[in-house]
């Protein structure tokens, strides 16, 4: 069975990285190295293409795990291991480097935590936060042999977050948490779904500049996730849905504190997204197909 899994995984890694137009061979290798079986739990499994009913696999053949689909962890609550092609694109966008420190919000059972650990390498570090006690317990067991990962079974919206180079969020929010922005080192990247519960939003990448109040920002793609506890706002969600309906590709920067001007695409409480670039060079993200739901 392991031989078959290795064969499936090698093809799976190549296929999803090709679909996501990934140019970093390290990312393909990370997906090739991480087995999905421990994180999926025992089969048969429930899978979906997103926005469609779950379909139960006929048996526990690992071939069913190595597809570009959502894999249910809790079908009743709509909690999944997110679509690999979408995550490959987003991870390519934030460009985790060897030796960097990464903070993941919403670890689930730890699959993408393990992929992040591969990218950060032995000299890097991954702090993974999971607020759901059951999922955190499974993640702790799944990740126990990965030396550069620390699992924290609590909210990732907290004042005591470590200073990091990358924050990768796997739960939808109506705003970027100020705690995340403060935890970023200069040059650090925050990638999170600006997509509160029930809203098809977008995966936004924000880079902390060396100086200045305008932070480079750009949507990597559309995205929809289960909601992040503490960062939901129904009214903001309604306004975000309206903003996305009018287009989202023009966003170039995040502004904090100052009043929105005519370049404002969306304004939150104390922050806003602008179509004007920040003073730093614009973020270069490769084009990508419309893989949206994770």
From TrEMBL:
Record's signal peptide: none
Subcellular location: Cytoplasm
Source organism, top-level taxon: Bacteria
Single GO MF descriptor: methyltransferase activity
BP GO annotations: methylation
Keywords: Cytoplasm, Methyltransferase, S-adenosyl-L-methionine, Transferase
EC number, as in UniProt: 2.1.1.77
Sequence similarity: Belongs to the methyltransferase superfamily. L-isoaspartyl/D-aspartyl protein methyltransferase family.
UniProt protein name: Protein-L-isoaspartate O-methyltransferase
Organism: Bradyrhizobium zhengyangense
């Amino acid at each position: 069975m392991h031989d078959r899994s290795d064969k499936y995984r090698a093809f799976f890694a190549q296929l999803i990285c090709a679909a996501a137009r990934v140019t970093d061979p390290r990312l393909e290798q990370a997906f090739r190295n991480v087995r999905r079986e421990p994180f999926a739990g025992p089969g048969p499994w429930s899978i979906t293409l997103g926005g469609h009913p779950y379909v139960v696999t006929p048996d526990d053949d690992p071939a069913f795990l190595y597809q570009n689909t959502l894999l249910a962890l809790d079908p009743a609550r709509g909690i999944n291991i997110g679509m690999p092609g979408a995550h490959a694109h987003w991870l390519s966008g934030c460009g985790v480097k060897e030796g960097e420190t990464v903070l993941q919000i919403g670890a689930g059972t730890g699959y993408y935590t393990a992929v992040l650990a591969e990218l950060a390498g032995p000299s890097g570090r991954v702090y993974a936060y999971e607020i759901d006690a059951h999922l955190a317990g499974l993640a702790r067991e799944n990740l126990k042999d990965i030396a550069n990962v620390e699992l924290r079974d609590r909210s990732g919206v907290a004042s005591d977050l470590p200073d990091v180079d990358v924050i990768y969020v796997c739960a939808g929010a109506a705003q970027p948490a100020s705690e995340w922005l403060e935890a970023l080192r200069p040059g650090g990247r925050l990638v999170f779904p600006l997509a509160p519960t029930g809203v098809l939003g977008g995966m936004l990448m924000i880079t902390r500049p060396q100086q200045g109040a305008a932070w480079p920002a750009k949507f990597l793609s559309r995205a929809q996730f289960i909601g992040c506890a503490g960062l939901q706002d129904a009214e903001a969600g309604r306004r975000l849905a309206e903003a996305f309906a009018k287009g989202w590709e023009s966003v170039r920067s995040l502004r904090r504190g100052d009043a929105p001007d005519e370049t404002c695409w969306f304004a939150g409480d104390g922050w806003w997204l602008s179509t004007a670039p920040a003073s730093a060079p614009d973020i270069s993200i490769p084009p990508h197909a419309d893989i949206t739901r994770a």
